[in-house]
Amino acid sequence: MTSAIVVDDIRKRYRTTVAVDGLSFEVGTGEFFGILGPNGAGKTTTLEIVEGLRRPDSGTVRVLGVPPWPRNAALRSRIGVQLQTTALFERLTTAEQIRAFAALYRVPVRRADEMLEAFGLTGKARARASALSGGQAQRLAIACALVHDPEVVFLDEPTSGLDPQARRNLWDLLRKINAEGRTVVLTTHFMDEAEVLCDRVSIMDNGRILRCGAPAALVRDLAAAHRITVQAGAISVEAAVRSFPDAVVTGDDESLTIATPDPAAVLAHLATRDALRGLSVRGATLEDVFLTLTGREYRP
Fold this sequence. Notes:
By secondary structure, this protein is α/β, with parallel strands linked by helices. Helices cover 35% and strands 27% of the residues.
């Protein structure tokens, strides 16, 4: 796979604050790549450097084979950017909004109207941007970022603040964007979103990448215990402790949970005792990986 983006040892400091500290990664052409991290990890600064909105203090970046800084007019027409804060012209209608972006990129009006239909906004064509719901506003922002048919798309927390239905609908749109051959770079705080959408993710903190890989591979490498939960009374806590000495057993009036590295043996034993009532099994997730790497403490 050829690389659409190559980032090599970039650094960015704001006075005494180190925002990006020697970051290196590559994104393949057509890949859906996620950048994850707690608040203040350096995600947005990294994205802005790659987009050409900020100049790194040192290091190099190449997007589609060319450096994004100094600002390159030829490159701007090949990338699409949806910023963390959606800024729309509130007094323009939805149609006027996207047509304005089309005019900036010298794209025919026909293309703008096609994007309205593709993003389910035709019915809101005459509504002002200020009257759109959160999900509609996010769809419009992404449509504006795609109106000129870019090869690489940058999305900074595109589903932040959306309800579950709006998030899922937007996921479908993002899958479609990627399936059409575009390279997509996403930052998000939602681990389930990254697991569903991304081919690979990088988890960063304090301006550095801690781990990078496919979500399933990162979860597998964590080797975390599976949590098996059954209805309270199916088996007593004392019996579970005796039967599974290598497991961590907890229980209350509603349920009993067994955290074990060997779920097959536990499930087999519970089955022989007819103790599977209310059964649920939960393996490790990308969120477990994230918390293991970045910690659980509150961030200022």
